[in-house]
């Protein structure tokens, strides 16, 4: 165990995934409370063609270039969703499904094209961005995750009060001069940034779980917004550490899925034993029945 914890590969991967999960847990809580968690899912899938396009333009699997390509396509996907919902009769859930499938399908088509084209070399690692391959994270990947996470948390902290008012009372926030569209775009821009830098760790398909599961856990244990944020960030970080350890200690266990499984176990535990859990409510109903 000590050998694993002190190993260079484990430390690099664990450091990156823990920071990513902590930031994602906090930022994702806003989207979950606002009922926009599925937008993150659609954007996560939509970033994949951005990675392939960036590779086609640059010619190498450069971490910053691929993340920038994912970020740009993520923003395009979000704007496309807004355009569809505001200028047509298509509902939000239908728009999300259309964008998710269309953009991800584009990414898979582009992937097939570059893999079968002799003009593009080094395409093997691109498929790792679908399901993630944290074991192959480099120091540059971790630096990018740290920079994006710190920037995201810094912006969130600076606008904490405005975001809090915008989440829980959008009418009042407008009356005191807070721009709700700006707050909405800022939160989603931060979310897309974390998705873009986290694709190599957990992949386009699983990244949304880092945004949703910690927020669900936080809401099950507390009603106070700040406490929910801290619980979400902490449980995300703990799950990332445990999942990375399981992946490193086991054979042929991918880090991203291991982290998601640990987070899922935390969700199940919280659903059963938290202050809002099934067992707690069952006991309360039983006591209420006995008293009547």
TrEMBL record:
Q: Which domain of life is it from?
A: Bacteria
Q: How does it sit in the membrane?
A: Multi-pass membrane protein
From the record, give the transmembrane residue ranges: 6-30, 42-60, 66-84, 96-114, 142-160, 228-247, 253-273
Q: Name one Pfam family in it.
A: ABC-3
Q: Does the keyword Transferase apply?
A: no
Compartment annotation: Cell membrane
Mind listing the UniProt keywords for this protein, alphabetically?
Cell membrane, Membrane, Transmembrane, Transmembrane helix, Transport
Signal peptide extent: none
What PANTHER family has UniProt attached to this entry?
Answer: ABC-TRANSPORTER METAL-BINDING PROTEIN (PTHR30477), METAL TRANSPORT SYSTEM MEMBRANE PROTEIN CT_069-RELATED (PTHR30477:SF3)
The family this protein is said to belong to? Belongs to the ABC-3 integral membrane protein family.
Q: What's the name of the protein?
A: Metal ABC transporter permease
């Amino acid at each position: 165990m000590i050998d694993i914890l002190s190993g260079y590969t484990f430390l690099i991967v664990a450091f990156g995934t823990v920071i990513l999960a902590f930031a994602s847990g906090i930022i994702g809580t806003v989207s979950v409370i606002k009922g926009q968690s599925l937008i993150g899912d659609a954007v996560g899938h939509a970033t994949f063609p951005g990675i392939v396009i960036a590779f086609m333009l640059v010619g190498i699997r450069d971490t910053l270039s691929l993340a920038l390509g994912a970020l740009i396509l993520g923003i395009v996907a979000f704007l496309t969703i807004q355009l569809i919902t505001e200028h047509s009769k298509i509902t939000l859930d239908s728009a999300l499904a259309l964008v998710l499938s269309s953009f991800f399908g584009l990414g898979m088509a582009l992937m097939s094209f570059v893999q079968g084209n002799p003009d593009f070399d080094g395409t093997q690692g691109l498929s790792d961005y679908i399901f993630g391959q944290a074991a192959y994270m480099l120091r540059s990947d971790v630096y990018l995750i740290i920079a994006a996470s710190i920037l995201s948390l810094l912006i969130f902290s600076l606008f904490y009060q405005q975001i809090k008012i915008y989440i829980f009372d959008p009418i009042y926030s407008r009356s005191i001069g807070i721009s709700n569209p700006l707050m909405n775009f800022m939160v989603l821009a931060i979310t897309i940034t974390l998705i873009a830098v986290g694709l190599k760790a957990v992949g386009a398909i699983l990244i949304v779980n880092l945004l949703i599961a910690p927020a669900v856990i936080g809401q099950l244990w507390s009603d106070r917004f700040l406490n929910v944020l801290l619980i979400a960030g902490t449980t995300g970080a703990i799950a990332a550490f445990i999942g990375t350890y399981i992946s490193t200690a086991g054979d042929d266990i991918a880090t991203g899925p291991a982290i998601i499984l640990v987070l899922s176990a935390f969700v199940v535990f919280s659903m059963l034993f938290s202050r809002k859990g099934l067992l707690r409510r069952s006991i309360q109903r039983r006591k209420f029945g006995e008293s009547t």
